[in-house]
């Protein structure tokens, strides 16, 4: 397990895209016993780690990690001044925000508190790379929605999407600059350019219901019905920009 | 807790006015000095991020001011002597036991074994 953690830390730092040969100041959220921190130190960067478990932090102290450690709950906010960090990594920690450990906890609020304070604590142009294990797609959507609300751009990079064992989710968030998402590993597509990455855009998506059919009476539905009748050989008017347009309420 | 980290920590209790939770006043009962490799570039890059007044105040309260000037000298990037002094104060002085006090609200965050406890109660979030 230590090997996997170390590999994920390496991949996370790689995704950070830090300038070469420049020692940076990073935040490790959910640093635990400092496994990822050790890798960050090896790369020559300085770091500060936060974790909610004092037991894990004690282990980190015993291992004499180089980074400073803070006992804190990420859902309560990142207690740092604005623009302090050149980047943030997190290995297998953020999904814990989705569990409501206490009755008074509200996961969306805690997620938003975490992301908004993280956004402010990061310097302009830096990134946050959060490796997580989402339980289901609803959790993933909740997390990404709160991240977007907090002002981040970016998206999910999924390494080895076709392997159940090796599949890893990295939520790559950018502060300020909308850069291109890094390429995922092991994404050999069977045909064509199917993108394995979920991008955040402001485009509105067309809605289809659960059966995959268009919503009845919408413009899509009208166009599909006309196609169907053409195939049946019936006489159908041509499609123009007025096809399926909204009529006055009197209709 | 190194002084570099202390310089960036603020109180995140709900209701604290922006900027009011910084700098946290240190009341240290145990301070340690380590040896950390000097990296000139890193120190020079960190200086603009550091709140100089708060750093001097914190170093003084620990008794480790070690002739650090009260004002940031204009040309510090190539002044290796100065950068070494800054390096010592930022990265080599560590508070092992003590208390961090919020200047506005007086809320105290204890430091044990070098780790500050920033956990908040339910009312504070």
From TrEMBL, chain B:
Q: Which SUPFAM superfamilies match?
A: Trm112p-like
Q: Supply the alphabetized keyword list.
A: Cytoplasm, Nucleus
In the record, the note on similarity to other proteins reads: Belongs to the TRM112 family.
Q: Which species is this record about?
A: Terrapene triunguis (Three-toed box turtle)
Lineage, uppermost ranks: Eukaryota, Metazoa, Chordata, Craniata, Vertebrata
Name of the featured protein: Multifunctional methyltransferase subunit TRM112-like protein
Which gene is the coding source of this polypeptide chain? TRMT112
- Give yes or no: UniProt keyword Hydrolase: no
Classification via Gene3D superfamilies: 2.20.25.10
A single BP term in Gene Ontology: transcription initiation-coupled chromatin remodeling
Instruction: Indicate the principal place this protein occupies in or around the cell.
Output: cytoplasm
GO MF terms, alphabetically ordered: protein heterodimerization activity; protein methyltransferase activity; tRNA methyltransferase activator activity
């Amino acid at each position: 397990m230590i090997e996997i953690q170390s590999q994920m830390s390496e991949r996370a730092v790689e995704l950070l895209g830090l300038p070469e040969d420049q020692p940076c100041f990073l935040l490790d959220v959910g640093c635990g016993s400092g496994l990822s921190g050790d890798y960050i130190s090896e790369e020559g960067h300085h770091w500060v780690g936060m974790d909610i478990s004092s037991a894990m932090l004690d282990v980190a102290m015993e291992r004499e990690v180089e980074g400073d450690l803070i006992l804190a709950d990420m859902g309560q906010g990142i207690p740092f001044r604005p623009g302090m960090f050149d980047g943030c990594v997190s290995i297998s920690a953020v999904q814990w925000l989705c569990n409501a450990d206490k009755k008074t906890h509200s996961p969306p609020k805690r997620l938003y508190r975490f992301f908004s304070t993280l956004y402010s604590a990061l310097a302009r142009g830096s990134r946050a790379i959060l490796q997580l294990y989402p339980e289901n797609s609803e959790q993933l959507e909740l997390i990404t929605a709160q991240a977007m609300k907090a002002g981040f751009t970016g998206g999910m990079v999924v390494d080895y999407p076709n392997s159940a064992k090796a599949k890893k989710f990295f939520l790559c968030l950018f502060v300020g600059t909308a850069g291109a998402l890094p390429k995922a590993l092991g994404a050999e597509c069977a045909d064509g350019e199917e993108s394995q990455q979920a991008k955040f855009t402001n485009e509105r998506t067309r809605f289809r219901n659960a059966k995959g059919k268009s919503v009845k009476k919408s413009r899509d539905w009208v166009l599909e019905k006309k196609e169907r009748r053409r195939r049946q050989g019936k006489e159908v008017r041509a499609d123009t920009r007025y096809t399926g347009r909204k009529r006055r309420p009197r209709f | 807790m190194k002084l570099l980290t202390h310089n960036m920590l603020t109180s995140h209790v709900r209701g604290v006015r922006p900027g009011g939770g910084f700098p946290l006043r240190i009341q240290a009962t145990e301070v340690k000095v380590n040896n950390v490799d000097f990296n000139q570039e890193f120190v020079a890059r960190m200086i603009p991020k550091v709140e100089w007044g708060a750093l001097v105040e914190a170093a003084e309260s620990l008794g480790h001011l070690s002739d650090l000037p009260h004002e940031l000298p204009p040309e510090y990037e190539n002044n290796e002597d100065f950068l070494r002094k800054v390096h010592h104060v930022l990265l080599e002085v560590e508070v092992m036991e003590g208390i961090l006090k919020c200047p506005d609200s007086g809320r105290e965050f204890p430091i044990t074994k070098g780790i500050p406890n920033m956990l908040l109660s339910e009312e504070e979030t």
